[in-house]
């Protein structure tokens, strides 16, 4: 019996949300829950993207997608918008790759459904309340992890110090919460994009997909410089809520330039050092100097936009 290809991503979507429901019913931990909610949707988007890219039948996938969204919304109230976002993001990525769009454009079309869904979900909730609730969950998780008995005074002192640290972190996080959410969505869609392309080419090597430049030569489009400049102008304007918007624009732009800065380091280190030295460098940097690495990478990526530290040809494409 022939099974339509569009059935398989629908099964993946159903199984994924079934797993989330089971996890919620068993009351899993905060860290595991965050991991599941971050990674399981990737499976849904990837399945739909691969299926579309291999078959090329957008209309058939859209019909099955609508049926899947309606079925999920009926069986699991509250998951309808999420299902629509994951499914449509996967289809957008598959469509963009099939039309040989550049990396940044595929990322943009795949990000759009997810961004709309998150905006609808978070619109009724104030960022401060959301971040404060997450901080309270972290503190409660620490309390549960502490062993019973022992010195109660030391236990309370540890919890109090942790609460102060969480309070400081949440104050900063509440200011840049939109940027953090957007960066997380971009990372999620970027992972989906890489998985869809890799899995589709593994199944059908003859797919006429657009070739990607190596990461060591990758760069963000130049318009991110103007995003950064716009953010800085908003911060300096001190007009209404513009500084808050500007801070978030600067954070997102800095994250993008830090990725380019990492590409610059990969390129330059690859010219000078053997592989074992590079592995040692990245291991030490990740575990010992992560904040400095990210800050330095952002400055390096921004400088590479003008100084062309890797001596790239002028016509290098962005995607």
Structural commentary:
With 319 residues, this protein is mainly α. It folds into 2 domains: 1-212; 214-319, no CATH class. Helices cover 79% and strands 0% of the residues. It has helices at residues 7-26, 30-55, 58-75, 80-98, 103-122, 127-145, 152-175, 177-203, 223-237, 242-272, 275-288, 290-307. α1 (7-26) runs antiparallel to α2 (30-55), α1 (7-26) packs parallel to α3 and α8 (177-203) packs across α10 (242-272).
How many strand elements? Answer: 0
Give the overall average pLDDT.
80
Q: Classify the oligomer.
A: single chain
Coarse shape:
globular
Estimated helix fraction:
over 70%
What is the gyration radius calculated from CA atoms?
22 Å
Task: Give the low-confidence spans.
Answer: 315-319
- The structural domain count equals 2
- The computed structural class is mainly alpha
Please trace the helix and strand order, writing H or E for each element.
HHHHHHHHHHHH
> What summary fits the major beta sheet?
none
| Discrete helix count | 12
End-to-end distance: 41 Å
Beta fraction:
under 5%
Structure characteristics:
single chain, 319 residues, mainly alpha, 12 helices
Topology diagram in text:
Layout: H1 7-26, H2 30-55, H3 58-75, H4 80-98, H5 103-122, H6 127-145, H7 152-175, H8 177-203, H9 223-237, H10 242-272, H11 275-288, H12 290-307
Summarize the structure.
This protein is mainly alpha-helical. The chain has twelve helices and no strands. The longest helix has 31 residues.
């Amino acid at each position: 019996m022939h099974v339509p290809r569009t059935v398989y991503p629908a099964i993946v979507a159903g199984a994924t949300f079934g797993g989330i429901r089971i996890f919620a019913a068993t009351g899993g931990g905060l860290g595991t829950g965050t991991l599941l909610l971050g990674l399981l949707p990737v499976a849904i988007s990837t399945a739909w993207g691969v299926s579309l890219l291999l078959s090329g039948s957008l209309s058939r996938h859209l019909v099955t997608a609508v049926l899947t969204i309606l079925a999920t919304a009926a069986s699991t109230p509250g998951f309808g918008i999420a299902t629509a976002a994951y499914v449509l993001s996967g289809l957008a990525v598959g469509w963009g790759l099939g039309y040989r769009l550049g990396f940044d454009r595929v990322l943009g079309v795949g990000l759009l459904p997810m961004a709309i869904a998150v905006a609808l979900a978070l619109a009724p909730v104030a960022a401060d309340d959301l971040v404060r609730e997450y901080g309270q969950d972290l503190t409660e998780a620490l309390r549960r992890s502490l062993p019973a008995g022992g010195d109660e005074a030391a236990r309370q002192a540890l919890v109090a110090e942790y609460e102060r640290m969480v309070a400081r972190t949440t104050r900063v996080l509440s200011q840049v919460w939109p940027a953090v959410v957007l960066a997380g969505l971009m990372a999620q869609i970027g992972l989906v994009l890489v998985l869809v392309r890799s899995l589709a080419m593994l199944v059908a090597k003859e797919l006429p997909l657009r070739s990607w430049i190596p990461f060591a030569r990758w760069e963000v489009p130049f318009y991110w410089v103007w995003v950064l400049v716009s953010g800085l102008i908003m911060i300096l304007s001190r007009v209404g809520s513009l500084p808050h918007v500007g801070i978030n624009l600067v954070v997102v732009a800095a994250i993008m330039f830090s990725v380019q800065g990492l590409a610059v380091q990969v390129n330059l280190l690859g010219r000078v050092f053997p592989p074992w030295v590079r592995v040692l460098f990245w291991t030490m940097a990740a575990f010992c100097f992560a904040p400095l690495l990210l800050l330095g990478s952002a400055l390096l990526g921004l400088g590479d936009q003008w100084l062309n530290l890797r001596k790239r040809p002028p016509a290098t494409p962005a995607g």
